[in-house]
Design a protein that fits this description.
The complex is a heterodimer of chains A (485) and B (445). Helices cover 21% and strands 39% of the residues of chain A. Chain A has 485 residues and is an alpha+beta fold. In chain A, helix 2 runs parallel beside helix 3 and helix 4 runs parallel beside helix 6. The longest helix of chain A is centred in the first third of the chain and has 18 residues. Helices cover 23% and strands 38% of the residues of chain B. Classes of the chains: A alpha+beta (485), B alpha+beta (445). Strand 2 of chain A pairs parallel with strand 3 of chain B.
Chain lengths: 485, 445
Amino acid sequence: MNSSDTLIEAQIKLLQPSNISHADVEQILAASYTKSHDYADIYIQHTEQESWVLENGIIKDGGYSISRGGGIRSIKDDLTGFSYTDDITVTSLMRAANLARTTANNQENTKILLQQKGEAASCYTTNSPLNSITNAEKLDLLQYIDTSARKKDARIKQVIASLTSSHEIIFIASTDGEFAADIRPMVRLYINVIAEQNGKKEQGSYGGGGRFTYEHLIERGSIDSYINEAVRQATLNLEAREAPAGQLTVVLGSGWPGVLLHEAIGHGLEGDFIRKATSAFTGKIGERVADAAVTVVDNGTLENRRGSLTIDDEGMPTQCTTLIENGILTSYMYDKHNARLQGVSSTGNGRRQSYAHLPMPRMTNTYMLAGNYSPDEIIESVDHGFYAANFGGGQVDITSGKFVFTASEAYMIKHGKITYPVKGATLIGNGPDVLTHVSMVGNDLNLDEGVGTCGKEGQNVPVCVGQPTIKVDNLTIGGTSELDA
Amino acid sequence: MKKNIENLKNIQNAQDFCLNEAKKLGASDVEVSISTGSGITLTTRLGAVESLEHQSDQILTVNVFVGERKGVSSTTDFSETALSKIVDSANTIASVTSEDVCNGIPEQELLTSDLPNLDLYHPWELTTEDAYRFTNECESSARDNQSISNSEGSTISSYLQTRSLANSNGFSAQYKSSIHSLSCSVIASDNGNMQRDYWFTTHRDPKLLNEFSLVGKVAADRAVRKLNSRTITTCQVPVLFDSLIAKSIFSSFVSAITGPAIYKRTSFLTDALKKKIFPDFLTITEKPHIKKALGSAPFDAEGVATTERELVNSGVLHSYILDCYSARKLNMQTTANSGGIHNLIIESKENCNTTDEIIKSIKKGLFVTELIGHGVNIVTGDYSRGASGYWVENGEIQYPVEEITVAGNLESMFKNILAVSSDADERSRIISGAVLIDNLMVAGQ
């Protein structure tokens, strides 16, 4: 579907049911904007979502939801006024526009003339995942996961699998004089298994997804590998010893361990924190923040990826922004508001959880580019270290720069070899300098399979992370056993 | 208040419509819940208003049971078209999910019949001018501290909510509540090193909020005292968790004894009922009927009447946290916890000292005031989180510490609780004092 077809579809779903005309949209925008304002926009959204959950061998839950509404934002210098409504009608949107304006309506309103924004290259299908396969097929898939996981290993005593999808249609018009629309699909499959042996329990999780339909998820043929991974991790953890406490050389696996980049530097490069000078990375453009082998990008244009967007939630086409090039900090990530106040351009990173939330600078797909070493060479170079093959979530304090992420699969490295598995542990480091301690970058760049969600100021958005295998010379590992020599 | 009456009528109509439609489509039982709310949030940063948000939310959820199968749908759109669509969709889902004898609405006798007045509704005529004045007063007081170099701002919010529930057993009830809060987050700096911290006040009754200038002052003091933090050498010591964060440990306890974790056997406390999991002096009580409290509710998300009960007495676990489904799964009674817990009070029956008195008793240990990360595994009880706080020696705080982790296993951490302070933090559904836990692994350099 090209931009024009997407726009027509959005108008049918969002504007036509309440007979909202092009001129109405211009008038609503005008009501939220006077000559003294800098910017106003209107964001109308319709989201359909479904979820299916299997546990204890049965289809326990099925759910469907509709979320519809419009948000209006009006900006004057540093001040943002915002109001939203669940009722997409001219009356309710006009009321929201008047509330968002924040100033009395005694100033001369400006006439707004809107035209369609130029074509943006689409990153995904506009088809709805919800009805791409039948309900029976969805449930069969979940039952297959249950049977298959239990068959793989008799120690698997519980399987919890969830299959969710959403289809979102948005329409955005702004006082920049343009309007645009986007239709976004999303699918996510997540598998959590519990292994039990001699009264000891451990879990393993894996999953995948992205901006496509269920059909595509099945055609990719990765589901068996997700089941294998979840079962492998749970049973492996049954054998795991206590993780060490203290500082060691750490090797991080490729793919999801890229959550390191997301926490350690990604958040600190978001334009709102930079404008407010609350990030430890403020004023560091052009400075060395990483080893010369490190190049990091935020790329919203990748096809079908969970963090991808054809246009962001302010109507800007997404782009591939190089954040760190050969170790030098080259760019921050901006939405329109913070870019305007900083006198720079938006990098297409303006995102919001929904019409009921204000946009902020957010990451899309953030990853480190591949280097020269094979993963084996990296492991072989370590005499005594910690190999974190997979991770759970992380968190950062962007002001002090301290960040954590929690390993879900880890091993000790002794004399260049991976030895025994150890239990998960939280790793803690200092964002502004952790990448200067990256001494080897692998040639095996991978992005995560598409299950990540990033939370910021109470708003959740889907993201992707990625990296090749990397070696970090010193990180603190939060285990429970004493470090042996 | 014409708008409220209209709202009430709309809620009633939407509920009746969904109940009738679902029955027409062949549902054996139906439950419709509606939540509506409105409010404002204003943030002032560096003396000027940064954002003003007007909230207005509504969501309707319908649970449909067809025999022993269940389907759920929800919508923010209350038009008849949308309501018909979600009821139809819930019925369709209920035609394909698994048959499960544990499904169904609560038995009639469990449903609440008379609503206690919990005094949860205290509207606040907060004008934007006042909202600016209060946040500015709060932030200015923080910035009066010479070491405060920057601010993330002060935010005030006031929100009113109505929760309604009706089911096909003839149950229909609703209650209103309010929540107001003011917070402040500021940055202290010294030689290029920055530290941020925050403070807040929150209450159902705006008259009972803390003084706004005090909130700013505390936020500033907290940020300043973190300056010049350093890491420490890896060690095994007693760790005192500040009351603000101690509740996170009991929130893990809640996750570990909540129905689904028990019947799925995905909790390290799966077989812990009637067993001693805490020291003798520890008592944990759920008190859903405390007037004006944040977690108070007359009935749970299924309409079951809430009651006060002891979860832990003399360290022994006496009850899980259950809704109707998990109770039936376990052959037990629901504890009226569909939707969560209602005021969980953690108390020590002896040695009721304040946080400061406990610090004085520590010979060598760590006082943790902030935790980050998600390193809690409910399946195994393994605990490993990022932390910052203060190093304590001979009963005195020595210096601030950061870039460390605290680790252990919740099962032994619970048993190794040495003290719970008497100065509890009441700004939460889980109300606990500071908690001193022996023998945790602290990783640093």
